[in-house]
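HUMAN: Can I see a protein plus its fold?

ASSISTANT:
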Amino acid sequence: MPTFESDTCSWLHYRDTFEALIINSTALSNVQKFHYLIASLKNEAKDLIGTFQITNKNFLVAWQLVTQRYKNKRLIATMHAKHLCQMPKVRKGDASSLRQLIYHVSSHMNALQALSSNVPAQDLMLNHLMLATIDPETQREWELITASRTDTPTTAELVTFLESRCRALELLQTTQPLKIVPATSRPSHSTGSKVSKPSYSNVATHLQCSLCNGSHRLINVTNFSECKLSNASIMASNQDFASNACNHLQGTTRVQNKRAASVTIDIILCCI
């Protein structure tokens, strides 16, 4: 006795077997057939006729109700395509899992061929993959549009629907208010960040000659005979004079460095 557990993909197999063994049997009464029907159904299908009383007339009503519920050619084809898109995993070096994959593909392909669908298997698989990708609202709208059809929509029809949906969404986007992005304000001179510049002091620097303590720089001395050298300065070591003169070389320009170097030589010669 075949059993049906409310699986859409196994409906055709169950229906053909039950009709051959039970429905077409002249040796069984409708009451007996009703008992066989109840015993063969599981889950939702059994609940569908669970409230029916077992009578001769009710058997025909119950069988017709179950047939109308699961005789959905488009749904059956879609479910087979879904299973073809979800292949079982094959373990490396495992013959049983490889055999299971072969049986999985063969059984669903044979079931699709038995349906004699108006669309090829590749269209059914592409439709399933595309519908599984789009958002639920678009998918729901597609199913509502095609629910009353007895044939299965092709992939070209689904693409046409998605194209019209895309154009409608593009037109809806044009009616949305534009988002005005505020321009970046430039920093004002009063509040904006200011680039720090080196400050220069206008205070006059005190000039003093290191030889005669006069109000001039050592580098500006042109005639050392005019510089009144003290005895302490004359008796100073050459190292002190050279170090003092070299200090004046720091912070001067290239031209001034040449002049300062000449002055330093004169100082050293004066101290010998």
Observations:
- Residues 164 and 170 are 10 Å apart (CA to CA).
- The mean pLDDT is 78.
